[in-house]
Design a protein that fits this description.
Elements (H helix, E strand, L loop, with lengths): L8 E6 L4 H15 L4 E5 L14 E3 L3 H5 L3 E6 L1 H14 L3 E5 L9 E2 L3 H10 L3 E5 L2 E6 L5 E6 L2 E6 L6 E7 L2 E8 L1 E5 L7 H4 L11 E7 L9 E4 L4 E5 L6 E5 L2 E6 L4 E6 L4 E5 L5 H9 L12
Parallel strand pairs: 1-2, 1-4, 2-3, 4-5, 5-6
Antiparallel strand pairs: 7-20, 8-9, 8-19, 10-13, 10-17, 11-12, 11-16, 13-14, 14-15, 16-19, 17-18
Length: 302
Amino acid sequence: MGSQQKPGRVLVVTHPLREDVAELAEKLAAALRSADVAVRIITGEVRSLLHPDALLVVEPGGEEAAATADLVLALGGDGTVLRSAKLAAEADVPLLGVNFGKVGFLAEAETGELETVVSRLLDGDYGVEERTALAVEATGTDGELHRSWAFNDIAVEKAEPARMLELFIEIDGTRISRYGCDGVAVASPTGSTAHAMSAGGPVVWPDVDALVVVPMNAHALFAKPMVVHSSSEIRIGVESVGTEGALIADGKELTRLTAGSTVTIRRSARPVRLVRMSGQPFASRLVSKLSLPVDGWRHGRI
């Protein structure tokens, strides 16, 4: 799989509301500290981690803790991994996800494998895989420039359920189409299996050098999902009068958009470096995580 240095400092990011994750984090920290690894934890309002006898330093923020870490370890579902990914990318350190959620598509290991995960981390027995992320610049309703980052996807969506959003799309300076739609999602290859896939977009293997543009419920003659090169610049303009749009990054609203607002999306200069401990190919992960019926509905029929 690869040989890495044993991390000397680990930042653990937990699901903010689950006490079972907090208890696991305490055990994990104890195991790492017994091997002379410094551990810090970012958590939410979980009382057990605030107990004075806890073996942990609980951090209220994240940026400084990540900047002094050698590795970020996320305990939770895909939401926790996404929250951790930004910290890891900004600090340029690897990210390891341990699934405590339902699907855990972004996680490398399950909770039952935690003992093995700790052992392999201490032995440096793991690889690191670089994944494309997204950068966005937008002019919101306040007229200010908003900048953000996403691992999975950036979306411009209608803010009012009963109204349609009028948008145009330009790719590398060329107008492609104009839609009345529910919105447009732009996804990294990693994010192609999230919001974009649910909206009818293609599944893109994570090592493909591309971005995905997916119109959502668009009223237009040309409203197909598009796969573009990762160096492309994607510009989305809001033309609706009286209907607001919302700019969403990895599921979190950043700002509201009104007529005349523009959103520009590019590949980020800060990729995500994911820890890999399994030689499982992406196709196998896709089948297992999504429980794909590989035999098809005709299996066993004459």
